Amino acid sequence: MTAATEEKPRMKKLLLFCLLAISICLIPWVSPARSHDDENKVFSKRRDLPLLASAASSAKTVGKAEWNEALEVLAHEGRWLKVGGKDGEGWVYSGNVATEKLPDENKNDMPMKASGLTATAAARGLSGGADAYAGRHSLGEVAEQLRWAEKFSASITMEEARAYLKANKLGEFAEVK
Fold first, then answer.
1. pLDDT by residue (tens digit) across 100-120?
2. Domain range annotation of the chain
3. Is 0.85 topped by the overall pTM?
4. Is 12-103+110-173 CATH 2.40.40.20?
């Protein structure tokens, strides 16, 4: 195996991590808090979402919110929201909440909305002719990369993704400038 052949899987892995990081960084702008009384609610996108004592990922957990629990926004500080819920008050990263109640079929541990790649991968299975279409339009390499991404993404745990974000100071671990 040549050095160039060995480098290709590394580059694909790096590309996937970059796409994940970019998607997570964009979440705060997709889920802003709203100002009207009735609309000043957000919904937890995670099971057992930690409510933190302060607006920092390293803060002590003072409570938890259930998946899709309605939380009242009490304050905001940069990318962080102070919320009140069934288990009390605390701070949450804005990327971990949605401005609308989530449908029941979304019940999972994903802390973000689906990226373009994820949506493409999900839709791909709906069409039996996807591979034929890719072949007709010279997209064979893209289809192969998508299959690789599907296989690789299944091997990444939530803990590994959070460790990557923390090590690279992305998402809720980003430093506010």
1. 998 876 665 444 444 444 544
2. 12-103+110-173
3. no
4. no
